[in-house]
Amino acid sequence: MNWTQIPLGPLQTNAYVLMNKNKEAVIFDPGGNGPEFIKWLKDQSIKPLAILLTHAHFDHIGAVDEVRDAFNCPVYIHQEEKHWLTDPNKNGSSRFLGDAAISTQPADHLLTTEDPIHIGEFTFEVFHTPGHSPGSVSYYLASEGIVFSGDALFKQSIGRTDLPGGNHEQLIKSIHSKLLELPEETTVASGHGPTTTIGEEMDENPFLSGF
After folding, report:
1. Which residue range or ranges hold the Metallo-beta-lactamase domain (predicted)?
2. What is the DSSP annotation of 86-140?
3. How far apart are CA 85 and CA 65, in angstroms?
4. Three-state DSSP class for 3?
5. According to the CATH classification, is domain 2-204 in 3.60.15.10?
6. pLDDT tens string 193-205
7. 3-state helix vs strand vs coil in the chain, percent to 5
8. Has this prediction a pTM greater than 0.90?
9. How far is CA 5 from CA 17, 26, 110, 168, 211, in A?
10. Where would I find the beta strands (DSSP E) of the chain?
């Protein structure tokens, strides 16, 4: 399998395309630039099987409906944010984008447990990692040694917790109890900025020291 990081939308949120040898793919957090992103997928003959959302802040969902409609693929999100897709006040777009506020159709699947999910050849472990937002989740693909962490953990940083539903102590607990338990060589594919590894963040992340 291979994966591609593609910054999209007003905040250049990292979308990820994880693809197998048959060009079947899972899309993470398509944050915007829908027409261009869809054209790129079609030009590469990629066949999206699903859209997995790490959370429902506006900068992660801007192209959800366009991609879902173009490829007829279902959308997954945690139940804690099931209403955020349809509500610009909850997803933050009314505050940050004004007249360009974002709402999408509801998700097709709600994540209610941390049971693994199976999509085609892909099997992901699901970690509920709240703190940045109540329904934040991280998707771990053990076979490839990569975790898609959304805005929970960044290279030498962590997600902001000053937005509605954010909780700093909860985020630190999520990172330590879920993400830092992964093998140190695990790649962390974050929602913004460059990738990192669990080991690097254990050693160098100033927000995680002293715990």
Report:
1. 12-192
2. T-HHHHSHHHHHGGG----PPPSEEE-S---EEETTEEEEEEE--SSSTT-EEEE
3. 10
4. strand
5. yes
6. 999 999 999 999 9
7. 25, 30, 45
8. yes
9. 7, 12, 25, 27, 31
10. 2-8, 13-19, 24-28, 47-52, 75-78, 109-111, 117-119, 122-128, 137-141, 146-150, 153-154, 157-158, 187-190, 196-197
Percent of the chain with pLDDT over 90: 95
Question: String of b and e for 40-73 (b: at least 16 CB within 10 Å)?
Answer: ebeeeebbbbbbbbbbbbbbbbbbbbbbbebbeb
Radius of gyration (C-alpha) of the chain in whole angstroms? 16
What are the residue boundaries of the structural domains of the chain, listed by start? 2-204
- pLDDT by residue (tens digit) across 122-161? 999 999 999 999 999 999 999 999 999 999 999 999 999 9
Structure tokens at 152: 């929970």
